[in-house]
Design brief:
The chain has 148 residues and is mainly β. 14% of the residues lie in helices and 52% in strands.
């Protein structure tokens, strides 16, 4: 019986070696032809949303609701847009900032330069729950994939 196990193990090892040798990494095709078969495809040509609702009290003691929405759009392999919206009963802000980014599965950095100042945020992609987390010290936001 020991001989049979050794023989089977040897045959499986040879078969596995032949299979790996026969595969050419250049022939691997991405399951999604719009995205290349590389790690950047986790975020390339995707959009992500974070929306937070809060309540606040105005100067008259009335309770109001505010909604802050952040959308990240990874437009090319190195650039994107961050859209920021803040809506209250009396205020409606809507801004957009271009950014550059670098990414290597599962982590990256986003750099936003605006008005002479530059901010850099770290981000990480979680494939198991398809979320993107952005963080830098006290700033932390969890983003969900936006289906457009």
């Amino acid at each position: 019986m020991k001989r049979n196990i050794k023989k089977i193990t040897s045959i499986l090892f040879v078969a596995a070696t032949m299979t790996m040798a026969a595969c050419d990494p250049d022939e691997i095709v991405s399951p999604n032809p719009e995205h290349p078969a590389n790690p950047i495809s986790d975020v390339y040509h995707t959009a992500w949303i974070n929306e937070e609702t809060d309540t606040y009290e105005d100067e008259y003691g009335n309770q109001h609701e505010s909604v802050e929405t952040n959308i990240l759009r990874f437009e090319t392999e190195t650039t994107g847009q961050m859209e920021y919206k803040y809506v209250t009963a009396t205020q409606n802000e809507d801004e957009s900032y271009p950014f550059t980014y670098t990414y290597s599965t599962p982590n990256g950095t986003i750099t936003i330069s605006e008005g002479g100042s530059t901010e850099t945020f770290n981000f990480s992609y979680n494939a198991s729950n398809n979320t993107l987390a952005i963080y830098d010290g006290a700033y932390y936001r969890m983003f969900s994939r936006l289906q457009e």
